[in-house]
Amino acid sequence: MSISLNNKIFKRFIIVLIIILIIFMGGYLFLQLRTYSADEQANEAMQSSSVSTNNNTVIFEPENALANLVLYQGALVEPEAYAVFATMLQNKGIRVFIPEMPLNLAILNTSAFEDIKDAHPSEKQWWIGGHSLGGASASIYASENIEAIDGIFFLASYPSSGSDLSHIDQPVISLHATNDDIIDYDNYQDSMNLLPPHTNFIEIEGGNHSNFAHYGFQSGDGESTITREEQLDKVVQTLIDHIID
């Protein structure tokens, strides 16, 4: 009787375990299917000899680095999708790091900046920021480790509700596009009290959410009236003006 009961319990345990595995695998496959992949232009940029991958981080190394920038990707966007943007910064003397986040969700590893900075010592400035959810994730780390960074940037993003940056002295840049239909503008407006008074808000006329990277058009976004290259030119120039000039 006891053996029969134990067998039933064991069988039920196996069934529950199988169900959990099926749910986990189903969720994983769902996220993979929803992932925004890098387009052909981004994949070509990844082939440069100055681009490398080390410890799950894509690194864009200029000949003479003037500053360091760590970019957290948007939710479910492949890090390679930012290769063109990173190359543009690299050509201006910025060493760019894009960590490969678990499931392409920066919120699952908000402290990636710390590991990168420890692995690549530099006396130059260290900036942190990100696109969409990546920016919110970067703000979590920044608010808890403000002494480790020299500046913060947000691309179609804003601080998470628990990330108060209003007291910091470091420069903060917030860029958004007028045709962005992905960003929650109510939350964007409400988050302004979490940023310091000297925050530089930049509006990109005619741009959208998808144009901050090279992964095609994101469902639900507004139509852009400028090219992706034009939008990224404005983003890069704004960052360079603050980081270097």
Overview in brief:
This protein is α/β, with parallel strands linked by helices and 245 residues long. It is 36% helix and 18% strand.
Descriptive notes:
Residues 17-33 have low confidence and may be disordered. 36% of the residues lie in helices and 18% in strands. The longest helix is centred in the N-terminal third of the chain and has 33 residues, at 2-34. It has one domain: Rossmann fold (3-Layer(aba) Sandwich), CATH 3.40.50.1820. It has helices at residues 2-34, 40-45, 83-90, 112-119, 133-144, 185-190, 228-243; strands spanning 51-54, 57-60, 67-72, 94-99, 125-131, 151-155, 172-177, 200-204. Strands 1-2-4-3-5-6-7-8 form an eight-stranded mixed beta sheet, sandwiched between helices. It has seven helices and eight strands, in the order H-H-E-E-E-H-E-H-E-H-E-E-H-E-H. By secondary structure, the chain is α/β, with parallel strands linked by helices. The termini are far apart. Strand 3 (67-72), helix 3 (83-90) and strand 4 (94-99) form a beta-alpha-beta unit.
The biggest sheet amounts to: 8 strands, mixed
Architecture (CATH level 2) name: 3-Layer(aba) Sandwich
Tell me the domain tally.
1
Going across the biggest sheet, name each strand in turn: 1-2-4-3-5-6-7-8
**The CATH H-level homologous superfamily:** Alpha/Beta hydrolase fold, catalytic domain
Class computed from helices, strands and strand pairing: alpha/beta
Unreliable stretches: 17-33
What share of residues is helical? Answer: 25-40%
CATH topology (level 3) name = Rossmann fold
Residues in β-strands, percent: 15-25%
Protein name: Alpha/beta hydrolase family protein
Organism: Pelagirhabdus alkalitolerans
GO molecular function: hydrolase activity
Domain Alpha/beta hydrolase fold-5: 69-232
